[in-house]
Write a structure and sequence with these properties.
Layout (H helix, E strand, L loop, with lengths): L2 E3 L2 E3 L6 E5 L6 E6 L3 H18 L4 H17 L1 H12 L3 H18 L2 H4 L3 E7 L2 E9 L2 E5 L7 H4 L2 H6 L3 E5 L6 H13 L6 E3 L4 H9 L3 E7 L2 H13 L3 E5 L4 E5 L5 H13 L9 E7 L3 H13 L19 H16 L3 E4 L14 E4 L6 H4 L6 E7 L2 H10 L2 E2 L1 E5 L3 H10 L4 E4 L15 E2 L2 E3 L5 H7 L1 E9 L8
Parallel strand pairs: 7-8, 7-10, 8-9, 10-11, 12-13, 12-18, 13-16, 15-16, 18-19
Antiparallel strand pairs: 1-2, 3-4, 5-6, 6-22, 11-21, 14-15, 17-20
This protein binds nicotinamide-adenine-dinucleotide (NAD).
């Protein structure tokens, strides 16, 4: 696998590689090179050079590349889906969602001539007018996680380049194949040399992007410790940063909810993508007398799930990403047993090849247990009893994370209280995965987000541009005619 720099596929200068493994079969799909500072220097120099002409290219011309890319992505949709399933393990249906959400980002960024409009105001004082425009800033970098191989990079770069910046992407070293394919399409779409660059690698590439003097801003998505590190390193080098971190997401079921649909929605949220979504539910807070019924229905639904290779269309849940993940999740389930929760369905008994776990259901979870506090990132349903909506909101707001939370109810008053008081920045009302679409902004709060300006939608336009205000007076008597 090669880097894509200045319009060419060139070998990484790194000598180390990491295996890209199909988590369903343990087959080694490829060796991903771990790039170096030299690769970053080359990519940033190419992007810096390309910026000189790209920023002067009219927005309506810049978007033609995105329109062409959209067509190419549609033509290659199923092959991207297949790659995504191969390297990540998610089901084909989930991979279709992954790729589709990515394409929607390109579609939204195609509207940049409208989204990028500034403001103007006549006569801010007598005879004086004011205009504010948004200007691109230069080279931006993106660093992305394994769990949405196709979609997450699209959260950023289409908005960056549509607004006139140039870009360097470092995808997750565990799932680089979808991005290699997408960059082949980017090349075909005819972006000028140096506008889009790809550097494969791990820590060394990340750290050099975050400290490079010619990188104006960094978008990061991944775990909270690395998000904090990226935020601190990049801001200490004077960069704009948006760093989206980990999560611990709660789902509240009120007695007036439709329990059957609520349980199904909660289960899909928790075990979809084998629990590896930043918006995955984790702990179901059963209010009042709902606990026993939720438990009964959850056990029935979770036991019925078909677990297997995501490439098989019958599969409802694929593997997790690695052997290390399997062991980490098993350790968390064991911690629940040690802390006296009830393991009602134990998904640790999968044998044979592949990094599989079956859905696990843990009951009688209490706020101080590890499974109630830590991000599990696996197919584990935690059930807890709470007396009231107030207690549920308190539990949610005591978490250091604040990515998302959901409420299941038929009460408008309860929904209003929840929307008003719950701390997470993306909320669902009778929705299990409240993922904002490309034309809204995406990002959590507290330890789930470091920075000020969130991803995509209008926030994407703001993050990748700086405002410039011009105040002007033209005296009438200065006219020569
Ligand atoms: P990760 O933090 O291990 O890796 C993310 C990126 O950081 C990768 O590109 C990786 O190469 C780099 N990286 C890893 N360790 C590093 C280090 N020590 N120094 C510098 N760079 C390093 O995350 P992951 O396991 O790939 O993804 C899962 C995590 O991402 C979960 O915590 C999940 O909640 C989070 N996530 C959050 C969102 C969100 O919107 N908040 C979305 C998707 C995923």
């Amino acid at each position: 696998m090669k880097n894509y720099i200045n319009g060419e596929w060139i070998a990484s200068t790194g000598t180390e590689t990491i295996e890209v493994i199909n988590p369903a079969t343990e087959e080694v799909l490829a060796l991903s090179p771990l790039g170096t500072v030299k690769d970053v220097d080359k990519a940033v120099a190419a992007a810096k050079d390309a910026f000189k002409t790209w920023r002067r290219t009219p927005a309506i011309d810049r978007t033609q590349c995105l329109f062409r890319l959209k067509t190419l992505l549609e033509e290659n949709f199923e092959s991207l889906v297949k790659l995504c399933t191969q390297e990540h393990g998610k089901t084909l249906v989930e991979s279709r969602g992954d790729v589709r959400r990515g394409i929607q980002m390109v579609e939204t960024a195609c509207g940049i001539p409208t989204l990028l409009m500034g403001q103007s105001f006549e006569d801010i004082a007598t005879g004086i007018d004011c205009q504010a425009v948004r200007q691109p800033m230069g080279v931006f970098a993106g660093i992305t996680p394994f769990n949405f191989p196709a979609m997450v990079p699209f959260w950023f770069w289409p908005f960056a380049v549509a607004t006139g910046n140039t870009y360097v992407l470092k995808p997750s070293e565990r799932v680089p194949l979808s991005q290699i394919k997408i960059f082949e399409l980017i090349e075909k779409a005819g972006f000028p040399k140096g506008v889009m660059n790809l550097v494969l690698g791990g820590k060394e590439v990340v750290n050099s992007l975050c400290s490079h003097p010619d990188v104006k801003g960094v978008s990061f998505v991944g775990s909270t410790p690395v998000a904090k590190h990226v935020y601190q390193l990049s801001t200490s080098h004077g960069k704009r940063v948006q760093a989206l971190g980990g999560a611990k997401n709660f789902m509240v079921v009120l007695p007036d909810a439709n329990l059957e649909t609520s349980v199904k929605t909660c289960l899909e949220s928790i075990v979809g993508c084998a629990g590896q979504r930043c918006l995955a539910g984790s702990v179901i807070l059963c209010v009042g007398n709902t606990y026993d019924e939720v438990k009964k229905q959850m056990l029935r639904a979770a036991s019925d799930m078909i677990v297997g290779d995501g490439a098989d269309p019958r599969t409802q849940m694929g593997p997790v990403i690695s052997r290390a993940s399997v062991e980490r999740i098993k350790g968390l389930i064991q911690s629940a047993i040690d802390e006296r929760a009830e393991v009602l369905l134990d998904g640790r008994n999968h044998s044979g090849k592949g990094y599989f776990l079956k859905p696990t259901v843990i009951g009688e979870v209490k706020p101080n247990m590890r499974v109630a506090r830590e991000e599990i990132f696996g197919p584990v349903v935690c059930l807890a009893r709470v007396k009231s909506l107030d207690e549920a909101i308190q539990w949610i707001n005591n978490s250091p994370f604040a990515n998302t939370a959901s409420l299941f109810t038929n009460s408008g008053a309860a929904a209003r209280q929840f929307s008003y008081e719950a701390a997470p920045a993306m909320l669902g009302l009778n929705i299990g995965v409240p993922a904002p679409m490309s034309f809204f902004s995406f990002g959590g709060a507290k330890d789930s987000f470091f920075g000020d300006i969130k991803a995509h939608g209008q926030s994407g336009v703001q993050f990748f541009t700086d405002t410039k205000v011009t105040i002007q007076r033209w005296n009438k008597d200065s006219n020569i005619w």
